[in-house]
Design brief:
49% of the residues lie in helices and 9% in strands. By secondary structure, the protein is of the alpha/beta class. Helix 10 crosses helix 11.
């Protein structure tokens, strides 16, 4: 069983690796390690020790943890938005539907709280129609552990840090996809680098769609439907979503 000291010195998992606290005891250890602490403004992928401040609302049986952004410049330069078509299409089968939705919900929470925020895991689970208990038996706890196992979240001395930019699916997971989905993925990742003209055209069309009343969440799919490259459509949709925040 990991101790609080071990939890506070654990380092982030590599992409596709196992969470720093190991499977099974991760969630319970996160809860224990975060009693009476609060995170720095953002969690970097490198450790920067900071003096925690005391919470006055945490109780012995609390399931409240601090959610922060996992800063990883390497992935952020080439990654995908958690709510993007790429993540929905290719990561869904890897993570499973529950973990995929937890990732999206956490992304939404961090959109409005970029400096970090306390979340109640029990309350969030209930909002998603699930149950949550400390340990590894509940579906919600298993979903969180899958996010850590695949390197999309990791425990910190203050709670949980989550990626805001999701890397491409690892090749070993692509090989487990159906033949049709493998072929589709190969086309997406092999697409030529978009030009400035590609982005300008897509931006102009997306703004027209937005002005006409189309929901931002649908614009990415609509751009792809009319022939805009998936990578360009994803970027433009993410920019529009940022304007709505």
């Amino acid at each position: 069983m990991a101790t609080n000291e071990e939890a506070s010195t654990s380092r982030p998992a590599p992409i596709g690796g196992v969470g720093p606290l190991g499977l099974g005891e991760t969630i319970a250890t996160v809860i224990r390690a975060t009693k009476g602490t609060y995170p720095p403004a953002e969690h970097d992928s490198q450790e920067h020790p900071m003096e925690p401040t005391t919470l006055n609302t945490t109780t012995a049986d609390s399931t409240t943890v601090a959610l922060t952004v996992w800063i990883d410049p390497t992935v952020e330069a080439i990654g995908h938005d958690p709510c993007s078509r790429y993540v929905e299409t290719y990561w869904l089968g890897v993570l499973g539907p529950t973990a995929s939705w937890v990732l999206r919900r956490w992304s939404d929470v961090l959109d409005t709280n970029p400096d970090g925020v306390e979340i109640d895991l029990t309350e969030l689970a209930r909002e998603m129609g699930l149950s949550y208990t400390i340990g590894r038996s509940s579906p919600f706890a298993k979903a969180i552990q899958r996010l850590m196992m695949f390197g999309l979240a990791h425990s910190t001395p203050f709670g949980i840090a989550v990626r805001r930019s999701i890397p491409d699916v690892a090749h070993r997971h692509v090989r487990r996809m159906t033949d049709a989905l493998q072929a589709r993925h190969a086309l997406d990742v092999a697409a030529p680098a978009p030009t400035l003209d590609d982005f300008t055209r897509a931006h102009t069309i997306a703004l027209a769609m937005r002005t006409a009343g189309d929901e931002t969440a649908r614009i990415e799919r609509q751009l792809i439907a009319i022939g805009i490259a998936a990578a360009v459509a994803e970027t433009i949709a993410a920019n529009l979503a940022a304007l709505d925040r």
